[in-house]
Specification:
Length: 325
Amino acid sequence: MKPILVTGATGFVGWHVARKLLARGEHVRALVRPTSRMRDLDGVETVTGDLRDSGSLQRAVTGCGIVYHVAADYRLWAPDSSQMFRSNVDGTRNLLAASRKAGVERFVYTSTVGCIGTRADGLGDETTPARLDDMTGPYKRSKFLAEQAALSSAQEGFPVVIVNPTAPVGEHDTRPTPTGKIILDYLKGGMPAYLDTGLNLIDVRDAAQGHLLACEYGKPGERYILGSENLTLRDIFSKLERISGLPAPTRRIPYALAYAAGVCSTGWARFTGVEPRVPLDAVRMARKKMFVRQDKAVRELGLQLQPVDGALERAVRWFRENGYC
């Protein structure tokens, strides 16, 4: 049995991908950094390396038949955004090159719904055009360029399939993702008001299953949105109110006020080096509701979706039981 390499197995989605592969009896190998948290990787072979170190990637992919490249520098603010481009763009190119050299038979690249364009009717899909200039902030720009590298590799004949997860929610969000941070801030009482915005949520278990289905049934060079429910932020807070027993905010904050708060918070972060409470890029992204269609993944991959309420319940319970709030 050839090993299957998973990058990002110490993260949120990558951990769930690795667990599903293990449950299927696969030999899972994880690329980990020396500083990575290792205690939750029972049953996984680990190889120490870094996406920016081509030599370590060559060692990691040796003998592998499949690669799931889930790892990414996922932050909406960084004191040095060039590091994000090195990890997300250069790292993806490095891993693609190492995988091709090693004769990998299938490469699944985890992009993001942020690389999907928006339509006049508000619902984007895999055919909606998007440009680099449409990307807000270094995270989205770096992921867009990385996705282009994956597409170019597919056009050159390497079997790359791309998945574009929306906002995953569920348990084991150890270094809370921006979506997990929304849930955590809510539980801590840090959401006194809401912005008129929206996003698509997906149970992280379904997102992980979508990766495995993309590997099995996806067509090289194609993109598949892994999403479930389009919800306004107020809808999400209403669900969290029912689940947690904590009251949801009833006051809507004007976008201009949120923008001003983002400017001040991010400006102070540049001065202090401390992560901003309100990242300006997050506010700018929230100007548009990030609603999409996931019909293609359901139709072509056979992705079966569960209501996100269960995932939100597991997220709330996990954060509480693990001392996050």
